[in-house]
User: Fold these one by one.
Assistant:
Number 1:
Amino acid sequence: MKNSKTASIPLRSEVAPEDCWNLSRLYTEHDEWLKDLEVFRKLPDKAELYKDKLAEGVDIFAGFLDFYTQAGLAAERLGYYAFLRYAEDAGDSDNQARYGMIMQAESQFSAAFSFVDPEIQSIPDSQIQTYLKDPRISPYKIMLEKLLRFKPHILSSAEEKLLALQSEAAAAPHKAFEALTDVDMDFGSLETKDGSLPLSQGSFSTFLINPDRSLREKAFKQFYANYSGHRNVLASLYTGSVQQDVYRARVRNFPSARAAALFPDNVPESVYDNLIEAVHAGFPALHRYYALRKRLLGVEELRHYDVYVPLVGSISTNYTYEEAVAVVIDALRPLGSEYTDALGSGLLGNWVDRYENKGKRSGAFSAGSYLGEPYILMNYKKTVLRDLFTLAHEGGHSMHSWYSVRNNPFQHYNYTIFEAEVASTFNEQFVASYLLDRAESTEMKAYIIGKQIDDIIATIFRQTMFAEYEMKVHALCEEGSPLTVDSLRKAYRGLLEAYFGPAMVLEEESDLEGLRIPHFYRAFYVYKYATGLSASLALSKKVMEGDSSDRDTYLAFLKSGGSKFPIDSLKLAGVDMASPQPVKDAVGIFSNLLDTFEALIG
């Protein structure tokens, strides 16, 4: 069975060119890339031309900014080409070598120019203001203003050097966590009707959606038995990561690790607090969902291994790639012809690498760059309806990049993660509405609404629970309470009980989940998923129910790119994420969807 499946996956060389992305906007051949790489490799030698000289006058400062921007463009072009070629076939030795070469070259460039931010921030305010009046500096004003916000948190050059030298050691907890969980841990295998199948980090979620409850239970117990056996090491690694967060925040004079993490995006801590408060207010609806799940599954006790199995079975669909594009474009017509013409041309043209091949990266992503197309990697399957939604999702990212590139200079075209998930999930709402309007069966309607419910639970409720856990753990560390296996598990179990509610019977191992989430090693990041979907739900409703002015304000948000802080750019679109209202409204949408779902399935 396994061999026949593997044999059906084509080699990269066997994939039709029209089904592959066309990277010629970046490079047409490897030799051209190598030639530019050699030029880029020499750029670190120019560091001495600018180091300790940026305060000597506007001429050298303007010349440096122009040089630095061109170097950034070159690095992005080289890097994106190497990354995309590696993503299309990681087994190809040329792709491996190319990817390794640019990573090494970028590391050397970053090391040579590590002086830049501290040196700019050390220039007296009066001198910087004089610089900003010069027309040559005008294109860099936004970039410089964002950089100069960090000035109160910059240390002396000697202290900055010590922090830089410590950065590799600071990454040790995360690296050790990845090595332990991805490489060293052996989860064994499970006997299924298809034979013995391996249990792994990647396959665990597949077992949890299996309709065989006894298999789900075995997978859950066997998986977490491994984590239990390493619980002290895992707790120590996560504690080390939290202590690093607290240390860096204190060294840089931030009141807390959370404040330090939110500062770069200029997001008030009240946004984080409002998110948690609004989600807690939605607990009655969430608990009603789990009670419904318990009833529909027909179990006496809802267990942790029961919460991911689909309540609506797989829907039989058959959308070819071209038909899926047609659905996406038709669904998004309210955004106007410029949007749909550009997206349709890209999806049917040279943006997308459509199908699976050996060595290709799994899943999907959009990779927008300033000089290339906003490329999309897919592993599209025509019988999987979720892949149609994924195409719309990645298309939203790509059109965000498309508009941003056309309305901003390179130095501030790149938008933040806080904004990124808005444009993608926004498109999914339009596709869901489109398919619901045309659904011919109750089963199809229930499937689509069930997907929307699952997305809100996974993205708003679950990610907020993660965010609340990070907040609680860092607060314990900051107040001097020791972080131990028991204290970490207790904090996580309390949140599981609160979020799942009375319908759930937790396993003894359930709270070990808090020791296995990789995102926790990048603290205070996951809340952005919850705010992003909340914003997109508000905006999609606004555009669907509004007029052309509502569409235009949304497009203005896409065009703003990285020219504003995320809260300000979303205000352009008509949603105020500094207010708790968008999250409250998202919880209300969840409750309404749940009402509809219950009515459909009886």
Number 2:
Amino acid sequence: MNVHHHSTLFFSGVLLASSIVAQPTVEWVEFTRGVSIATDAAENVYTADWEYNPAGDIYLTKRNTDGVLQWIVKYENTDNTRHEVATWVATDNNGDILVSGTIRSGYFSPVNAASLLMKFDPAGNLLWRQVYESSFDGSYTRKCLVDADNNIYVLGLGFGTVGMVTKVKKFAPDGTALWSYFDTGGIGAPLNFKFTLDNHLVLSGRFLFGSGGGYSKIDLDGNNVWNYPAGFSLTAGDVAGDADGNAYVVHGTSVGTGGVTVRKLSPAGTLLWEQPTTIAAFRVDVGTDGAPVISGFPNSGTPGAAFAKFSPTGTQLWENLDADGPGNALLLHAQMQLDENNNAYLAAGTLFSQALCKINADGTEGWTALTSGGYATGFAFGTTAAHIYLVGGATAKIVQETPCEAPIGLFSNNLTTTSARLNWTVVPGALAYEVQGRKASSATWRTKTVPGSKNKLLVSALVPGTNYVWRIRTVCDPAGAPSAYSPEQTFTTLVLREQQAQQAQQLGMTVNVFPNPVSTQLNLSGTSTDAEPDQVLTIRVLNSGGMLMATSEIAPVDGLGNYSLAVQEWPTGLYSVVWTNGTQSGSQSVVIMR
């Protein structure tokens, strides 16, 4: 395994590490073929396949999570001059199933005749069937997606104003056609499309003649946001989008390395940066951390599974050129997805076996699972990544250890000028906790490992009067995946008395906070000697965990201002009163006692 990291260890602790790789279990294999696979909320498994015969049909198969066959349905095509080809299967929030396909004419040298979309209910009943735009327009489909409102989007090739181009067609849940989008940017024939984290669609295409392709972004109303004709590429490219509207593209290079460049595009589609890599990558996805992960072959002449991850600013965080481990040499890469913890999975094959390869979010090798059934065509997660369903020449269920839960009940207390105590609720079965902290003004996390029996950590050597951010995750199995990190928490260290006096002098004002300790009503009075005595004074009160409890703005009249705050409903403890006048600020600690 070849892994390069760019990372830092923090505080005075060390990270848990293990050379043991937890292997998954292949729970069942059923010899039902499929070109695509989907699951519903109950982890029923749906696969779509088709038969290459005169009057050949699309087959939709349902199995439960234990692999037991529930039903097989098909639409009875009676035209011996045509056959129907399944391209994708998806489920909606009601548990209904969508199947996209292409109607082809002829047998020995078939041609594309029309595009097809069908919807079935969970019992296998056909709800509706749409053949578009006519019975013979030369179009085809590639993939379908379903949004949160159960609208359906179908990617394919269709006849637009400039000829046969990449097309997206949107349907309402009842099958009504809502709009059609035709590419005019010259991205090529359709390869793939995805939802972005900012709720748009990004499309990748490949030239019908010559090597190259391009990319587009559209909104869910069918309006073009941008086109990016990336040009020459020996490899097929891919695109994915983050929550801020940026997009990441993997596209081949012409420099003879056989690798690709990773490019970041702005929400307007302009190039922000590009980074070369020798990986022959043709998959990219973006995790919840906003960082893109790419996958492909280690180089243009070597089989296997290689991955790399980049920061949003273009720094390569890690590279793993042998994620499938020794002896596997995966081929026929089919689909990549990230799970909720930003681990990446790649469906592929070895010519003899279906394969699913996992790479951990930190770039270390996860595992590679092989099943019978030839090469894989795709996979789908269950309700979590603990269960993964693989399809190709067979359908299989892969089970991996469920990561433990992140701690809850997080808060900070015992704040001083240079230290703070971080608290959480013990997670049953925890071996350890990884606590990360950083200054709010810094992007670099520092990490401390705490035994699983503990529920607090005292951090010291902090900077007075500084905002800090922290988060925590649980390690339940040193050979398995840790939990996701908790939501980020904040606290502010107290200000030194010397700083308070200096800040007050810089402010040209005196602020008195009384009484202290306080039980019911807290008072502030300020006297300003600034050249602009009527400048607005902003007051904030924070609890010991850094949570904002109250805020107000007062405008001193003739240099004087007063503020009162009822605190009788607040918990007892230590609070910080922070005031700001222009670009300067001051603070004072207050204790609520009863």
